Amino acid sequence: MNKLTRTLSIATLALSPLLAAAPAMAEYPERPVQFVVPWPPGDLEDILTRIIAEEMTDETGTPASVINKPGGAGIVGALDVAQSRPDGQTIGSFVADILTTHIHSGNAPYDRSTFEPVGIFLDYPFVIAANADAPYDNLEELAEYSQDHDIALGHFGYQALPTAITLQAAKQTGIRIASYAAFDENNCATLATGDADIINTTTQLILSCLKSGEVKLLTSLTQERLPIAPDVATLAEQAGITQTTWNGLFVKAGTPQEVKDRIAEIAQQALQSDRVRELSESTGAGIYWIDGAEAEEMVARDFENSKVLLDFMNQ
Predict the structure, then answer these.
(1) Domain made up of 33-124+245-313: CATH architecture
(2) Domain ranges of the chain
(3) What family does the Swiss-Prot or TrEMBL record give for this protein (predicted)?
(4) What architecture is domain 126-239?
(5) pTM to 2 decimals?
(6) How far apart are CA 156 and CA 239, in angstroms?
(7) pLDDT (tens digit, 9 = 90+) per residue, 144-196?
């Protein structure tokens, strides 16, 4: 044995007890995982996040659950993730507003660098809906009607991105909104009780009354016409507004890349299920997966676009 080999052997023997004593890196997740949905249960982001949580439980054997924390137009739930450790044990299922308009408006107790995207997975089928017997079927007819009648709008919060898009559309098409109010849920009851004449909501929340014919769509805030309402023109067609809304999974900044990769892997598996495909077909939701640099770019782009919308609303 030459001198170099003998030296290495001695060093290896000296280190052996230390190597044996060093704990192996634990495989994620180490303990139960919480997905935080900052809205009441029942809408698309909630349903899809539950499917992802179920997949994580099945895949890893570690319990994963969804915690609904509504309030503050999503800020209450977002704060839970902002105050968590960067270890992937607390995952936010966030709509675009939480990373865009809330920060611009100064009402968020976090900043642009607080969260990192794991992946964006949902193009919301946001719509403007009315009771079926309303005397207008599209934005042009609504604009004409609103000149002589008071129109009340139900929405998810004045600083919410879909609200900003809706109010911009109202201005561009000449719709006069006499009053508006924010609700945690804008559903069939919001229209049936007369709390609002039109609502800005998602198809999932009004699916039952759409199917029964009690409610109709005036437009959709989507890239393409909804398969469940192919005759209803999109907002882009009716008002030239192309911005849409999305939902994604986010973790505290500083979360290890291998943890984010594992969450992304499980989420993608879950989103390929028959349940998800059926949900997309029945609601018109765009369900996909965007992660990594592309997701970062998407958030950054919409961060700038939302500032333009807020400037419009503050004029």
Answers:
(1) 3-Layer(aba) Sandwich (3.40)
(2) 33-124+245-313, 126-239
(3) Belongs to the UPF0065 (bug) family.
(4) 3-Layer(aba) Sandwich (3.40)
(5) 0.78
(6) 21
(7) 999 999 999 999 887 678 888 899 899 999 999 999 999 888 999 999 999 99
